[in-house]
């Protein structure tokens, strides 16, 4: 099950985000481990406030979070490569799963759930990115049917700011 997060969920959202930061750091990734602290509690509160933060729930337990953004992302304006489409798209960011639930296919389930939300908004393309050394996320993206499109450069950071970018076209 997936539902929008509320302000009352911020503690569990940050618990999952902080789990992910520890996991990435343990695997020598600077993704989510840079000086700016991204994603911060303020980033997640903003997502909750604008209705883009979602929780993934199984057996009455919140085990994942992600933000589904339906407005253009400036980081996707330029790509070293080529997007599949030039049409309106949604993007998925800040996706994380509790460390106790890794390797159970939860990420794929979350991305499939996101597709339903995106299509309900009459959008038929989803873009997502990840660090090249975040192999678990890369596998999740590919196993969910996304196509590698190239490399984007994050505008919020000058340090370790290249990300592999993917897109999936949805049937309309």
What does this molecule look like?
The mean pLDDT is 94. This protein has helices at 10-26, 41-49, 106-120, 135-143, and strands at 2-4, 53-58, 61-69, 80-81, 90-97, 125-130, 147-153, 162-169. Strand 5 (90-97), helix 3 (106-120) and strand 6 form a beta-alpha-beta unit. It has 172 residues and is α+β, with helices and mostly antiparallel strands. The two termini are 23 Å apart. The chain has four helices and eight strands. An eight-stranded mixed beta sheet has the order 1-2-3-5-6-8-7-4. It is globular.
List the helices and strands and how they pair.
Layout: E1 2-4, H1 10-26, H2 41-49, E2 53-58, E3 61-69, E4 80-81, E5 90-97, H3 106-120, E6 125-130, H4 135-143, E7 147-153, E8 162-169
Parallel strand pairs: 5-6
Antiparallel strand pairs: 1-2, 2-3, 3-5, 4-7, 6-8, 7-8
């Amino acid at each position: 099950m997936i539902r929008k997060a509320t302000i009352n969920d911020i503690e569990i959202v940050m618990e999952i985000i902080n789990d992910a930061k520890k996991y990435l750091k343990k695997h020598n990734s600077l993704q989510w481990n840079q000086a700016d602290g991204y994603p911060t509690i303020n980033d997640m509160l903003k997502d909750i406030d604008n209705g883009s933060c979602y929780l993934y729930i199984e057996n009455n337990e919140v085990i994942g979070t992600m933000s589904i953004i339906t407005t253009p992302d400036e980081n996707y304006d330029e790509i070293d490569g080529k997007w599949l489409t030039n049409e309106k798209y949604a993007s998925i960011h800040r996706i994380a799963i509790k460390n106790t639930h890794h390797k159970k296919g939860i990420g794929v389930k979350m991305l499939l759930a996101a597709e339903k939300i995106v299509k309900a908004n009459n959008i038929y393309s989803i873009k997502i990115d990840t660090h090249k050394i975040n192999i678990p996320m890369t596998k999740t993206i590919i196993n969910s049917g996304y196509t590698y499109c190239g490399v984007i450069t994050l505008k919020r950071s000058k340090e370790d700011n290249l990300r592999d970018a993917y897109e999936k076209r949805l049937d309309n």
